[in-house]
Amino acid sequence: MTARQQRLISVGAILLLAVAPALLSPFKITLLNFIGIYTLAVLGLVLLTGVGGMLSFGQAAFVGIAAYATAWACAIHGHSPWLGLVLAVVLVCGIAALLGAITLRLEGHFLPLSTIAWGLAIYFLFGNIDALGHFNGIGDIPPISISGVALRSSAQIFYLIWAVVIAALYLCGNLLASREGRALRALRGGRIMVESLGINSFRIKVATFVIAALLSALSGWLYAHMGRFVSPAPFDVNAGILYLLMAMVGGMEHLLGAVVGATIVTLLRNTIQDVLPLIAPGVSGQLETVVFAVLFVVLLQRARTGLLPFLLRWLPQLEPSRPISAPPMARRRQPMKGVPLLSVEGVERRFGGLLAVNDVSFELKAGEILGLIGPNGAGKSTMFNLITGVLRPDRGRIRFLDVDITRRPQREIARAGIARTFQHVKLRPKMTLLDNVLLGIYPRTRAGFLAGALRLDRAEESQARYEAIRLLQRVGLAERAFESAGTLPLGSQRLLEIARALAADPMLLVLDEPAAGLRRTEKLDLARLFENLRAQGLTVLVVEHDMDFVMGLVDRTVVMDFGSKLCEGLPTEIQADPRVQEAYLGGVV
Amino acid sequence: MDAQIAAILAIDGIATGAIYVLIGLGFVLIFAVTRVIFVPFGDIVSFTALTLASLEMRRLPGTIGLVIALAGLASLMEIVAKLRARECHLIPRTILCFLVLPLLPAAAVWLLSGAPLAMPSRIVLSLALILPIAPLLDRVAFRPIADGSILLLLIVSVAIHFALVGLGLLFFGPEGVRTQPLSDAVFEIAGLTVSAQTLLIVAASIVFSGLLFLFFDFSLTGKALQATALNRTGARLVGIRPASTGTAAYLLASALAGISGVLIGPATTIFYDSGFLIGLKAFVGAIIGAMASYPMTALGAVFVGLLESFASFWSSAFKEVIVFGLLIPVLLWRSLTLTADTDESTEE
What we know:
The structure holds 2 protein chains of 2 kinds.
Chain A: H1 3-23, H2 26-51, H3 59-76, H4 81-103, H5 110-128, E1 145-146, E2 149-150, H6 154-176, H7 179-187, H8 191-196, H9 201-227, H10 237-250, H11 256-279, H12 284-302, H13 308-314, E3 340-351, E4 354-365, E5 369-373, H14 380-388, E6 395-400, E7 403-404, H15 410-416, E8 418-420, H16 433-441, H17 449-453, H18 458-474, H19 490-503, E9 508-512, H20 520-536, E10 539-544, H21 547-551, E11 556-561, E12 564-569, H22 571-576, H23 578-585
Parallel strand pairs in A: 5-10, 5-11, 8-9, 9-10
Antiparallel strand pairs in A: 1-2, 3-4, 3-6, 6-7, 11-12
Chain B: H1 3-34, H2 41-56, H3 63-84, H4 91-112, H5 119-130, H6 133-142, H7 150-172, E1 186-189, E2 192-195, H8 196-218, H9 220-230, H10 232-237, H11 242-264, H12 275-288, H13 294-314, H14 319-325, H15 327-337, H16 343-346
Antiparallel strand pairs in B: 1-2
Helix pairs in contact in B: 1-8, 1-9, 1-11, 1-12, 1-13, 2-5, 2-7, 2-11, 2-12, 3-4, 3-6, 4-5, 5-11, 6-11, 8-9, 8-11, 9-11, 12-13, 13-14
């Protein structure tokens, strides 16, 4: 399927929606209205939970705050619903930003639990404030009017609701394909890789949280002016759970999952309400939730990823658009050859009683390829993590271009010009090769969330895509640019990681055991890439285990053993050094 | 507020907290062993109190229907699984474990429910009837998705909670109940009147949490549970079946929930849906203990009890707002004290 065909299908779906009020009964239109309103809230949840991996039960509380804000402004103080919208959005986004700033630093299941906590607190707050009518709620909310026409009937507000839903889907879709959206998609699966690319994961989390809250605010505003009445009950934790259920039923990893989930859950609930009185007269009210719950348990046992993936399997895959030639991106000024680039001075790091790195010093000059070698447990990887900011040294200093980076966070070190790869490859297996490399370009581009959603980032984006495909060409993976990174064999994954590191246009490339686990031919590919980098004059620090591999490539070598520096020198000197032979071979030679 | 009121509130809070301790320990136990945040746990607490109340009124408790239905479903699933695995010789054992054992207390309750029973036998009967529910739910709902994500398990757990609340309304009706006090005696300690009921709650909480610690440290099953909690794959390699330790965890936790239900029954009016909030508050205690440490969970639960007691004095309307709102700073503190190093485990 081409992008053009996809656009045609979307236009067809929109046209179908446009004629729906003429074809369906008012009751069905009301159902569609509810579906639209739920879709908005669930869409936020898909972004937050499905894409970003942050689980929230509090979405309903945001819907509630918006509904109450507009109800309070319009029904009690007689303002226009549009002013209510402004109030709702400002209030919800403000509260979300505050709650996000407090709670998004929480790891693991602390975050979802905290959302239950403040979700409940907000619910009880609604029910106990005099100005908000206690648990009785607020009635007589005026309808929204657009240029003098009041949207009273369900068919009238139908167009507003679905216009908002379609706009939201479009903007979120754009966002996910943009620079910040890629970073958001990369959040799942750990922070270390994301931060190592110079991405501020916390900022992205908070922004996504606010965007999700904004979508709930729209949902709440429409809800209040459609039903013209608000009470606390529809915004309790159960509602938050219902939204989560919709997202899971539809499929968490795709924006359209929100539409599918909201539709199925709403229709199913409605059907159960219709059918149950016929089967079990008298007790149908009580049985409703039971049947509903049991159906969901069965559904989730059978289809864990939701229904959308099943539906999408029947559709042809969307053909990716290949990057086209674009003006080259601005590059960093590389330091003069021979200038001291990185200096490690008396660095020490302990883990409890173990002295992993003990008073190690060395220097790296621009344009040089330095090998850091040593037997297992010598402290090479710890040294590596100290340089890249994953760990902080207990003592000593690390300077990069005369700037002290000893206590800087990972992402600042990355932005200063040190790009790295990982010993255990860290890619995003479900993202394409191209997207993985584009992640590396993140610090060189600027487009924010708004620019991404509104597609104002096109020029920059095409430059970045062209740069990414050229890097893939350089490592020989351009033909597979649109495959998932997880399908690559290990050797190619390592090359992809190097392409991603090069995408940051670094001054220093640090590679953590790039040859580990590679086959012979893969090692040859890697060696060829090294020659290529050397010809370009890039400075490289390579931590390696494989002596044969590393000795032919590096200019100079530092040898570590039991946490201390054993010696340093030219590869030939090192190989002849009896101390090194002793460390590696136990002194037999 | 003077010292007198503060003391009364503190005693009240400690009693409530003591009940939360038992429930919170159960939460942690189930989560650690099975990775399930067992939301219906609070419902088990309220169902115990409601079952006890039915027996007091010499009525047949609705819980029987639930147990029979679950036992039937679980044994059906288990028999089908055994047939598919061609392990027909195991079927009699399956029927014994999943059908006969759970139905024994149900039969006893059915026979005895009309008769005038002494309080201890009523309590024992209620506990026996409640015990099989959680393990059977585990078999029916969780075992088919045991390898799923925590989120999936959590959502299923929430769905089961809704199912149980709906059934609770069907079985027990909308009326609230208060069970007969376990003791009417009242003591005077340092100028304060303390009811024997309160002392009993605190004592029971200390005794049963103490027994739990002993169980973990000195019994082989306890050690198997700990092993599964620490490392499922490792436990399997040394011959521990996560499925059986899961059942053991559910049974043990249900016992704690049942005891809490018996203790809370005379103190608070319990409705069919009261369990959720009780469970949630106990859960808050468990979160303070980071879902891992049993002693911290106990402390956290007492803290929540005290908080609730004082909050209801300051403003009974905003009691819940205060309790759940205060959780946020607590969580923040927990996350700051448990920083970093957790990242690698979530890295793909």
